[in-house]
Amino acid sequence: MNTRVYLRRYWQLYMLLILPVAYFLVFKYGPMYGIIIAFKDFNFFQGINGSEWIGLDAFKEVFAMSDFYKTLRNTLMLNFLDLLFSFPAPLFLAIMLYELKTVWFKKISQTILYIPHFISWVIIGGIVYQVFGTQSGMINNFVTSLGFEAIPFLTDKNDWLITYLIVGVWQSAGWGTIIYLAALTGINRELFEAADVDGAGRLRKIWSITLPSLKPTIVTLLIINVGNMIAIGFERPYIIGNTAVRDYSDVLSTFVYRIGIESGQYTLATVVGLFQAVVGLVFVLGANYLSKKLADQSII
Amino acid sequence: MMKVVKGKKKASVLLALTLAGTMLISACGSNNETGNKATGGEATSGKPVTLKVEVFDRGNSPSGSTITNNYLTNYVQDNFGKPNNIDVQFVPIPRSEEVQKLNVLMASGSDVPDIVFTYDSGTFYRYAQQGGLTDLGELLDQHGPNLKKFLGEDTLAYGNYQGQQFALPAKRAHLGKYSSFVRQDWLDKLGLPVPQTTDELYTTLKAFKEKDPGQTGGKVIPLGMALASAQYEPLLWSFIQPVTEEQRYTLTQQLGSNDFPILLPGFKDGLQFMNKLYNEGLMSKDFSLDEDKKKLNEDAAKGLVGFFSEDDMNPFYPDGLYSTLQANIPDAKLSSVDVYTDSEGKHPKPEYAPVGLYLMVPKSSKNAVEAIKYLDWMASENNLLNMQNGVEGENYTLQDGIPVAKADAPDDVKNRVYNWGDMAIISNGKQLGDTDRNVEAYVLGMPEQFQEETRNALTISRSDTIKPVLFDHPIEAQAKYGSALRDKFNEIVVKATMVKPDQFESTFESIMKDYMANGGQAILDERTKAYEAMK
After folding, report:
1. Residue B398 is inside which H or E element, if any?
2. At A123, which CATH number?
3. How far away is chain A from the Cα of B111, in angstroms, using its nearest Cα?
4. What is the mean pLDDT of each run of 10 residues along chain B (535 residues)?
5. Is residue A300 a part of any domain in this protein?
6. What residue intervals traverse the membrane (chain A) (predicted)?
7. Which domain holds residue A145?
8. What ipTM, to 2 d.p.?
9. How many Å lie between the alpha carbon of A236 and the closest alpha carbon of chain B?
10. For residue B377, which of B58, B153, B51, B34 has the smallest C-alpha distance?
11. pTM score, whole prediction
12. Do A155 and B126 lie within an 8 Å CB cutoff?
């Protein structure tokens, strides 16, 4: 089929592509122009073009800030802990949901599990203070009524880490099951029937059928997660965090917010953003490469 | 074929809808314009100049009016716009994101209003430093004699950037900040005197904890604390020792718009006292989570708090803390008291800089003259009084020259001046000639049963005050590190207060080191240099 015939037959498909491609060009590639702010002494009134070039001065300044390293460490630490605890949670949940045989119960459970995903972090922050507060939080009211010392869930930095993780799992685990459940519907039922005939128990079936069929999904999500190691959402650490636990709750995104939005130092904020993007790219490619080598699974 | 036709039909319907929509919108726009033009054009001939003025939108416009079309905007148009052939348009900016929105407007250059403003001195300095503002010095002399007289030198000095008048700060009517409050009924119940010094306060707080006069069932919070200036500043500043002028200039650190005593002698003692109160269970346990004072207000209104410091008038507003407290506990009584005492027996506390909003004219504006004329008009005759209070006899009556709002005025009359604070931009608070009368206006604005205590609180907040330190040029390191160090300052207060007493020294050492390394030292160096240059 020569090109003309091919185009005449499929031009509609290409037309369909135009909108998404335009979206990426306008909203994802266009703003990249702004990256040059990182190499300029950005002046508001002169705009990006009019501002003076300063080479790598801004990078030197950022890399000399002790807060930069603290927030970098915290970002990696919180993300690593999340990877350890929050990443497997939806997997377990999805398998449990899959094993449920009562349809109405399964549906209700799923709905209840999804809800936290739709609650704004600001509201979750309010709930967290009501539940975990030291002086009048629900849990501590109970703890102190039993005669124990109140637990500073929010104000001691180690206890706070646990709170942070629990809240993260609660908020995202249910929603995370969707991808796994979608993958699970693709499993051939005959495999289970054959396993039943062979006398396999439930755990055996999960281990030898369910998990292996989820492997590509798990690996894909893992790569994406590792790629996001250096990036961290703003709301969760900002809202769940507080002054008393700043040692752990201060992360790159809150750091950028502080120097960029609050102090108006756009150049420095852009430097940090660019740094995150470059390191993130290295992480994604690295994770992809490793998984290709070790598990023969990759996304690129 | 059919399909195509159908698609076309759908498309044309959509098109028509969008067209209709845009026409509607533009129709609304042009309606306004012609309306304004008609009113402006009658007075004098020629095309009226359009003066665009920023206004805060708090989303609280009463029904029947909008933020850009209400009693006050019409008042401005009728009394200033028409006679001068100027069409005054108001550009709403949401209050909650004023700086971000203003940044966008300023960067756009062409669309920016002729008069913009912000409460944030850092934003003002940044605009001035980057050359985005008009120097108003000469214009003020030529076109704003009333305005210049009204604002006065002290206030204008805050809008001066390296010899150029890049902003006209609004004048603040009342400079007092903080007062403290004690549960008088608890004192009476225990037969205790009103505490007069910090030591006596400590005894009182202990008694509150041990004897629980409010019968809170062990939930008593003797000292209500929050992670906010109004709560910790009166305490910390009272521990600062007498200082020389040089120390005051060099060792104070201005972060955001407040001065902080972080390097002044005695700061550590203040923190140590807080540490002691916290570890003995005399202070709110979760104060570090309470940056907006919500929890403190809630606890105090529930009758759990024995003593606390607050912005001087805050507890007394209708439906405010005190009235909620009395609704919960009918015989509760709050007294305004001045307790924290320094080594000389005084009750020092910071006061406000004599400024409110920083009013600025962007460099790209072509109507700087009209902008000054507008502000000058506001400062002359009775215009400010009218904009702040409405119509005499309908909105307010004069008692000894002090306007008192008529409580029985119908809602639509009351609503006339619903956003006077945002429209009368040259003043922060009501201006009646002198501070005592300004303060009395606040007092008379409170519910009658609280007026006496309000008067006391406003007297306390004005006594033994510490003025903010002002250099003849802004300290650049403060603009750069200010907001980050503001967070660090809170961290210092929280950590030094909550740590076990035996670890206080080492904790204090390490957080101070962190503070100095992240900009504190840079500010100190620059202030020292600036002070020497000033001498």
Report:
1. strand B396-399
2. 1.10.3720.10
3. 13
4. 42 44 40 38 66 89 86 90 90 84 81 90 86 90 90 90 91 92 94 94 94 88 93 94 91 89 94 95 91 90 94 89 93 93 91 92 90 92 88 83 81 84 89 86 88 93 90 83 88 94 94 92 94 86
5. no
6. 12-39, 76-100, 112-132, 161-183, 214-234, 266-290
7. 37-295
8. 0.80
9. 15
10. B51
11. 0.81
12. no
